[in-house]
Amino acid sequence: MLIRRAKRVSDFLGAECFAVAAHESGDLLALPEGEREAINRHLNFARNLHIETRILKGQDTAATLVDFARRNQITQIFLARQPERKWFLALSRDLLQQIVGLAKDMQIVIVSERDPPATNDRARNMHA
């Protein structure tokens, strides 16, 4: 959902879109297999949407992301806030707050995972 939203906004603005993952070594092979597969699945999804992908290297994830954004003249950053999924722990509330604090000159969009909308049958059963 996050990647699609960022792509729609970039298309509307006629701007370039990046999907990035940050890791202290810059090498996803250092991650546990499940985390690495999840990140690769998201990066591949972004590539299928013709979004440029990058894996960033840096000890301080927030500073690394914001520095990348500034160097690439990025004006909007889309971040995910997920309910306790192990591989998304890096994007904890603390990290989100750090990014917001460092990127005061950028628009930050935090996208929360939502429950899928009820289907018409389910909605009718709820009102019956």
SSE order and pairing:
Elements: H1 2-13, E1 18-23, H2 33-48, E2 52-57, H3 61-71, E3 76-81, H4 93-102, E4 107-112, H5 120-127
Parallel strand pairs: 1-2, 3-4
Helix pairs in contact: 3-4
Report on the architecture of this protein:
The chain has a single domain, classed as HUPs (Rossmann fold). The chain has a two-stranded parallel ribbon. Helix content is 45%, strand content 19%. It is built from 5 helices and 4 strands, in the order αβαβαβαβα. The two termini are 32 Å apart. The chain is of the alpha/beta class.
CATH topology group: Rossmann fold
Assigned CATH class: Alpha Beta
* Secondary-structure arrangement, i.e. CATH architecture: 3-Layer(aba) Sandwich
- Could you give the distance between the termini? 32 Å
Integer-rounded radius of gyration: 16 Å
Order of helices and strands: HEHEHEHEH
The named CATH superfamily: HUPs
Structural class category: alpha/beta
Instruction: Quickly count the helices.
Output: 5
Largest beta sheet: strand ordering? 1-2
The quaternary state of the protein chains shown equals: single chain
The largest β sheet comes out as:
2 strands, parallel
Summed over residues and divided by their number, the pLDDT gives a mean of 84
What fraction of the residues are assigned to beta strands by DSSP? 15-25%
How many individual domains? 1
Quick gist of this model?
The chain has 128 residues and is α/β, with parallel strands linked by helices. It has 5 helices and 4 strands, in the order αβαβαβαβα. The chain is 45% helix and 19% strand.
